[in-house]
Amino acid sequence: MADKELKALHQGLINTVNKGDYASASRGLSSLKIALLQRNALIPSPTTPLATLLHARDILEIGALTSIHQTDDAAFSRYYSQLQPFYEDPRLSTPKTASMNRSKITGLHLLLLLSRNDIADFHTTLENLEAPEDDPFIKHPIMLERWLMEGSYDKVWNATKSSQVPSEEYAHFSQVLVGTIRNEIASCWEKAYASLPISNAKNLIFLDSEGAVIQFAKEKRWEVKDGRVYFPVEETEKEALASGTIIENSIGYAHELETIV
Amino acid sequence: MVDKRSLRSNKRSDSGSSGNKKSGDSSKLAKSSTKKAAASKKAGSSSSPKEEIPPVENGAEDIEMKDDAEVTTPTAGKRTEKSEKPGDEDVDMSDGKEGDRKEEDPVVVAINEIKENFTLLERAVSLFDARFTLRVLRSLSSLRRRLNPEILSKVVAETYPGDHPSSRRLTAAIGSSASGMDLDSPSEGSKDGGVLLPEIDIYLHLLVQIYLLDQKNLETGASFSTELVQIIHSLNRRTLDSLAAKVYFYYSRVHELLPPPAITEIRPQLLASLRTATLRKDIDTQATLITLLLRNYLQTSHITQADHLVSKTLFPESAANNLIARYQYYLGRIRAIQLDYTAAHNELVGAIRKAPQTAAAAGFVQAANKLNIIVELLMGDIPERSIFREPRLEKSLHAYFLLVQAVRIGELDSFFDTLNTHAETFKKDGTYSLILRLRQNVIKTGIRMMSLSYSKISLRDICVRLRLDSEESAEYIVAKAIRDGVIEATLNHEKGYMQSKELLDVYATQEPQEAFHERIMFCMSLHNDSVKAMRFPMNQHRLELKNAQEARERERELAKEIQDGDIDDDDAGGEFEGM
Predict the structure, then answer these.
(1) Class assignment of domain A1-100?
(2) A150, B439: Cβ pair inside 8 Å?
(3) Which one of B307, B483, B494 has the shortest CB-CB distance to A197?
(4) Which residues contact A251 (CB under 8 A, 6 or more apart)?
(5) What CATH number has the domain spanning B454-506?
(6) Cys-Cys link to B212, which of B67, B221, B414, B496 (CB 3.0-4.6 A)?
(7) Looking at residue B192, what is its pLDDT?
(8) ipTM confidence
């Protein structure tokens, strides 16, 4: 009987999500999570019946996707952590019971880490996956990371267009990523170019109008003159000896020598 | 009373077993490399325990590293290749050296050897000295190859009084083909005085455990090990520590060989044992368990958990060298995955340096070197060529050698060729995902080569040379390389070329000083590590004090004699040496 109640709530949640009403879905989720807790299913334990666990996993997955739609990164991370024991449970990873959404959620998690520039965690998560490149959901963040690292920003830009992302949830990160690559490109420009024509800069930094470029240049405190953007010339590095470190090192050596002799 | 008994048994073993000892030694000789052989020969010829100590300890490490080689080699194929090598050597050498001893029944020899180890264990307990236990453990690897049900069941029957629970468990595990054991068991059992030391009990269990593992009888081995671990967990004796560490080692090994869920199922037990070992300051077990847990986590790629374990535990500094090496290897692996290449490099260099140079540890050294090569490449360094020439590494590092060449030249094509042809090798070694990260390094090297060779080159040419998809990508990539300090150059967008800046004089910068500093720090830490790694015999300083006092007395005498005026040079020289 209790399971029927859970099932009904679950079905209701699916309906609200399908309607796209994420605000009420997240309200429904909190009551569902309490219901799961009462059935001892929020964390998979050997005693919980399999059917309840499958419900629990599905609900948590919906919760994760809902929090993405609401751009609540912290909530998504929580859901992701809660889902991990479900994915690790051998009972829940047989071909019949394996989750359809697992790679999607993992991919979103990777993207979140990437947008936070948490590359170490990104690779740690990646190490956990088998054959990551075969899955379109996982491949997307992997390729993004690779392009970001080598500097193919035009490819990142193309990939973040809505037609290229594997599912609608991924598009939520596009904005963040575009901001990231713009900043990256800007920092590269400062070093690599003396000046750039505004018309070229517009295309290179993926902005819509030249006005936006000028706005962007102002934010970065670049000089705009005669239709060109001039980057501040770097002050020549001081050749003065870093006396502090030298003294520190020498004292260190002296100290070590003293202990040896 | 216990002391008396153990003393008596010591005497018995010293006088009665010299013949057997020799045979044991000769097999040890055969096992270890020539350098070690000299050491163990010394151990065999000298009968006083004091002189025996240093080789004993070396030997114990020897064994451990053998296990290491077996465990840290990720591939089954390579393991057999490696373990066969020392095996072959063994046969050849023992043919030459044992020669005349062949008529002796190997069963009797083995049984005597096991019995002899009992007396050593008794001595370890009565003198509370772990060195005797280590000596017993050293003989494991030579004994291991000779074990068979006949030997084991005979020993079990002769050791335990008839209805001892361990006896039943052991015979059940051996699968007892020998049914005639009941004949002499009552008399022999009672002779040992009824009270059986837990150390001997555990030692026999350990032998059976290893036997089951060697017979690939994994199911039985796993359940037997689980039972055994529970027994050990309930015992609290410091003289049991090194034996317990071994038991845990094989416990984990057996479960590792079983199909997947088994490996995660032992984690709670290992963690519980680690807690107990830490509380009891049981350093051997503690260090073994930490490495086992790390290995366990890494095998299922639970990097985060492994990292948490490292941050929450303190690895005992006084642990055996090989355990430290193993720990450093795992730590290096974790750090490499977390992109902390400098830390990974430090740990791996430490691991390689600490690993013993015997053939038995080749697998470990190979694995550590493979990882180290990748980490060095990721750091932007090119590993030294001499690594690839070392005979014991050459073959297994071949794929890595090709990889290094591709990265060094900066050609994406040959990089991916190597990656694809040797993908299986890299995946087996667990370095594949790390190697994938090298792609950007290859591109950077390519750009760097071009910037060094041309003072001005068009973006189109760069694009063609690096086989990039578009000129646009090339521009971004070069711009990023400039920002990251890979090259010194400027870009001209309208005309589409890259202009290299004049090369800086490196010696005018901080660079040489930093390189110098790094080397000094390395030497310092090497020195400090060596000081820490030195072993000092117990109570040696008291001996020195005594010597000093004697010397002082002699000096006084000397002074007196000088005063008396009757001393010649020879005497003075002699006295001086004595000081």
Answers:
(1) mainly alpha
(2) yes
(3) B494
(4) none
(5) 1.10.10
(6) B221
(7) 43
(8) 0.74
